[in-house]
Structures are given as C-alpha cells and as structure tokens.
Here is the input.
Amino acid sequence: MIIHLPQRRRVAHRWATLAALSFVLFGCLSPPAHYYEPHELKNLRVVWLDQASLHEQYEQMSGKPALALYGTDSSAGVQSVKGFFDFRTNTIYCSKMDFTACGHELHHAIIGYFHPEK
Ligand SMILES: [Zn+2]
Here is the structure.
C-alpha cells in the first residue's frame, strides 16, 4: 500500500496534465461553424389535396394552365404543377404525401419570392 500510493498520485498528476493540455489545445481551435437559421411563420395555412383538385385550384387562382407541354417532337413531355404557394392568403397547396412539393412550397413561404417568370 505504501509503495503504490506515490505511483497512483503520479498517474493522477499525469492525467491532470493531459486534461489541462487538451483543454488548452481545444481552446485554441476555432469552434466548428454550425448553421442555424430560425424562421417563424405566422398564419401559415396548408391545404392538402389530390392532384386533380390542385390543378383546378391552381388554374382558378392563377389563370394559367396547370399542365404544360414542353420539348420537341422527339422528346416531348407534360409538365404539371405539383404544388404552389399563394402569397395573398399565405397558403401552401400540395398533396399530403408529396414531401418534395410540400417542402418546396414551404421554402417559398419562408423565403418569400416566386420563381422568375419564364
Ligand atoms: Zn417553386
């Protein structure tokens, strides 16, 4: 017991030195840059609806077609509105399980601008 005591104390001292040293090293490092951008949306409304109803609603509100043809004869397709955000009523219209469209419109609601008109 008498022999082991100083040894234990030396080990403890070594750990204390190491801890102090590591604290100094960490203190010198710049803290990692965490991205943190809070937003609070007031009176945001969300309407979940099926695609046919969504298209009807969009055409009624915007006066524009919800479906549009694009491309050339060889590679043509139909582009359809998957969701939209109405700035006047602060309302997101999207399909319940379409996380991409709902997320996209939420982004518009936060940022507050439309896509540039083509
Ligand atoms: Zn958009």
Observations:
- Residues 1-5 have pLDDT under 50 and may be disordered.
- The chain has three helices and five strands.
- The first strand starts at residue 45 and ends at 48.
- The pocket of zinc ion is lined by residues 104, 108, 115 (CB under 6 Å).
